[in-house]
Amino acid sequence: MIKFLLRIFFISIAVIIFIFYAKDYHPFDKNDYQRIIDNNQITIAVRFGPTSYYQIKDKEIGYTFEIMELYAKYLNVKLNIVTIDDLDEAVEMLNNRDIDILADMGTNQDVKLSYPYHKVDQYLIYNKKYNNQPLSISKLINKKIEIIDSHIIKNNLESFLGDNVNFTISDRKNIDELIHSLKDNNIDFTIVNSDELHLYQKYYPEFEVAFKIKKNVPLTWAIPKNTNNLLEKSISAFFTEMLKVNKLNLIYKKYFSDKLQYTFVGTRSFLNDLVTVFPLYEFYFKTYAKEYNHDWKLLASIGYQESRWNKDAVSYTGVRGLMMLTKDTSKHLGIKDRTNPKESIQGGSKYLRELLGKIPENIPKEERLWFAIASYNIGFGHVEDAITLAKKNGVTVNDWTSIEPFILKLSQSKYYKQTKYGYARGWETVKYVQNIRQYYDILVFLDSQDNVIDKEDSNNKIPGSL
């Protein structure tokens, strides 16, 4: 009897040990983690979008992109990015191993979900220029509601609206296209998350919240449904480490801080800075504008839009200094210290002259300035893409007005897929140029009055239209 009990005891211990060591072994599941390590590359799919992944000044950036980049470094493998809007296609590619991870694609079907590293609220928004605030869900009946292709958004919206309100899912559009449709009154409502809302309202103050449809929606990465849990464990360990050192919070603040300058600051604020800050750098603006054959007022306007004439300015894109030069551009221009105001203004002036030299000569000289200024913000490659798109559509490009609609189209998949340099936040660049025009007009007016930095009279001589 004792021998029998001892046998049962040792068998039980052996079974426990086996289960402990075999719990990560699934004979019908695939070891994608090891495959990624062996291939020395991870392929992650993401949508182009203003909060996820895009390019500016020839640099890849974005909140989601930066996290993807850090995960690839965590694994010590190369990062390969695939952009896609069709969710069904993305899930199929994931389970076929053409893609390793779907990052923030909004799916929870036929996949495994990884660590929920961030939470957002989801909002139904409208354009107050064309629609009134709906007081109840019933007011949405017969309204045109369009959303991106997302299982999570679809499910949450269905739960919120009930059975009487219909909506359309766009499987070939990104959020920028729907925002453009909302701006132009082609749709009545769409869904954005709280991060997107924070960004878009800086550029489109006419957008308002109709309803909050869901709180605390987790953002997760999707991995193949039949993968073993090694990849999932790796992702969880990565995000746990990021949370421990507060890295996720730092990245979030970098992209969604209220300190970021998106909009025209207002005439009075500009005049105050003109009086209190501009005199510190006036000599350099006028000196280097003359050296590189610019209007100093235009150069100063660019500097103000870039940094509000703050020599210590740092952008989420990594650009620094008063004229916000990238590290690579500074090196190319021979600028040793881009945080030095003198060198920064010299570099910005030299760079603007270089960009002007790239603009097609058939465009009138006075209009080439705005093409060059747009290039200063978005990169010449994207401006070149917009010119090519315009020509494909039979538009003669001879002024900024003719190219502006195509700058806007650079954020729409229907158009950026035809381009060499891909997606760009064109609406940001259009606003950028618009702001600089406004600052420039103020400086031109003041200069014409021989009253550029007169503390007592400048406020009284600004026309109300500025």
List keywords for this structure.
466 residues, alpha/beta, D-Maltodextrin-Binding Protein, domain 2, Lysozyme, 3 domains, 5-stranded mixed beta sheet, 13% strand, globular, disordered C terminus
Indicate the CATH topology of the largest domain: Lysozyme
Q: What percentage of residues falls in helices of 4 or more residues? A: 40-55%
Rg is 27 Å
- Secondary structure class reads alpha/beta
For the report, how would you describe the main beta sheet?
A: 5 strands, mixed
Structure in words:
By secondary structure, the chain is α/β, with parallel strands linked by helices. The protein has three domains: 118 residues, 3-Layer(aba) Sandwich (D-Maltodextrin-Binding Protein, domain 2); 102 residues, D-Maltodextrin-Binding Protein, domain 2 (3-Layer(aba) Sandwich), CATH 3.40.190; 195 residues, Lysozyme. The protein is 48% helix and 13% strand. It contains 19 helices and twelve strands. The chain has a five-stranded mixed β-sheet, with helices on both faces. It has a three-stranded antiparallel β-sheet with strand order 10-7-11, sandwiched between helices. Strands 2-3 form a two-stranded antiparallel ribbon. Strand 2 and strand 3 form a beta hairpin. The longest helix is centred in the last third of the chain and has 23 residues. The C terminus is likely disordered.
